[in-house]
Amino acid sequence: MSEEYRDRAAIVDVAVAYATALDTRDWTLLGSVFAEDASWAYSGSGEQVRGRDAILARLSAGMGHYDATHHLNGNHVVVVHGDEAEHTCYFQAQHVRRGLPGGENLLAGGRYEDRLRRTPDGWRITHREVTKVWSEGNPAVSSS
Length: 144
What we know:
Number of domains: 1
Oligomer: single chain
Domain SnoaL-like: 4-128
Protein name: SnoaL-like domain-containing protein
CATH architecture: Roll
CATH class: Alpha Beta
Helix content: 25-40%
């Protein structure tokens, strides 16, 4: 296998680890996908978080009110430029909160746009932008 394909596979593995970490609430795994100086943004909201610890705090707090989530990624596009890379993929994310009037589910779809850096420990996200394209279900599922 060429180095290019190994890099591409490793970068897709980072994206999959992000989804797995959210769904399993594995904050150690989630921390391992981000560079220490990373940033995370939710497109359209103006929200941007800087630094791995702040990203972990934001995402763990945001996931805290769900009873379950299930994130699926697909349509990965990876472009490697030496020790830097760009990655995009689509996501579908199911969010569940039991016992809500109006429905217990919210399904959202969108894309992740990433910049990554090769480190001695492997590829790490330096910036992730989350763009929600559509949703269906009860919006109250995502309310605090």
